[in-house]
Every structure is written in structure tokens, then in C-alpha cells.
Task: structure prediction
Amino acid sequence: MIKLLKIEYKKILTYKIFWILTGLYFLFLSLGLLMSEFMINNMVDNMNRRLPIPLPHVTIYFFPWVWQNITFFATIRYVLIFPAIVIIILITNEFTFKTIRQNVINGMSKAEFLISKLMLILLISIVVTVLLTAGTIIIGVSHTSDLTLALVLEKSSFMLGFFITMLTFQVYALFFGFILRNTGLSIALFTLYVFIVEPILYYFLKSPIVFKNDISPYLPVNAVLRVTEYPAIQVLKNIMGLNLQNSISFAVCSLPVFYAALMVGIVYWVLVKRDL
Result:
């Protein structure tokens, strides 16, 4: 396993696009998380101009709710798309430059090649989760009074939800990259599906005219985004009537994991059946 990771590391070590996109991801992630409270309160100010009773400003960085708030904003589509594009580029480059064929000629099996990519995705997910956990603790400690260890750890399970979201969304990208094998086409169709096709399907399938029972939550990308569905902002509950999450649900996490496992199975089958 370590050997496979070393091979992947050598491939990305001098690959500038990987480091540029990774840097942009962390930049936008950091800016988004630090600006979230400001943007929400700016929206509250705009709403207050039309309301007879003004809404209070919100605070999202205090324990224990900072775990839920940070993971929610870290898992919106516009943030997750960056590591997903990185994975697509790394996968499709293997076919573009015929390195997958060379790896197989040198003795690597197709199964080992797929495992090496999955291990890279797992490693990226772990690193990002660890960094986000450290950042969340720093932000939470600086915004919370009367700290206790129990308070800090109370909602920390949301970080596990972030890890599952990060991991499965990258597997979705891996699926597109392996099936289509073309960088531009894979990125275009993946982003089209994530930002346009599935949102349209979501509202179409949500209509009771189409289905009596709402099946829209079972769409692949929506299943990932539902792991942390709403930030812990009381205004959302009071004004919009939303049922805010209290914890990460095993049932909600299991669906994107199922989709990811299914996609990995399809990719392996395609790898075995198709020529390199």
C-alpha cells in the first residue's frame, strides 16, 4: 500500500496544476469559512429593512455549534468542486499520457491501479479533515467563553460527516474520470451534473405531481450534501421552519457511501473489460 502511495506522490510532486488547484481550494475554503458569519449578517440586515421587527445578528463560531456550521459551509457544491476537479485531472491524465498502460506493463495490476487512486482520495480526505478540525478548534476556542472539554467535543461528530462527504464526492469525480477518460469532457459533464442537471432533477422529483413520495433526497449528489444539511442558525428554524440537525445520522451517511461503493465497482468492471 505504501508503495502505491509513493508512486502517486511521485506523479503529483512536480505537477503544477495539482498544487495550484489545491492551493485555490484551501484559499476559497478559508475565505468562505471566515466570511460566512459576515455574509449571513449582511443578509439579515437586508431582511431587516423590510421587517417590522428586526432580526438579531447571528453568531456561528461558538462551541458546540461551530462544528456543524463549519462543516456545512465546507461542504457546499462550490467548495467541493475544487478537489473533485483535481481528482478528475489526475485520473484522465493517466489515459491521456498512457501512464496507466505503462504501469500495467511494469507489473501493476488494474486492481492495484484503482486502489492507488482510492488511497490518494482517502489520504486527501484525511488531510483536509485534520486541517479543518484544527481550524475549527482554533475558531471555536477564540469565540467561546466558559470552555469545557465536553462542550468542545459535543458536536464533533459533524467532522466525521465532513470526512464522508469529502471522500464520497471525490469518488464521484473518480467515476466520471474513469468512465469518460477525457479531461475536458469529464470536468464539463461532472460540473454540469452537479450544478445544473441534479438540481433540476431534485425539484422535478420533489413535486407531488410527479411522485407522491419525495424521492429527491436519494439523488447521488444531494445524498452527499444532506450529510450536513443546514447550519445551526436559530433564525432558519424560527423564520423558515427548518428542522435543524442535532447530530450526524448513520442512515444519511450510508447512502452516499453506498453510491460511492457502487461507482467503484462499476469502475473496476470497466477497467477489466475495456482496453487501456
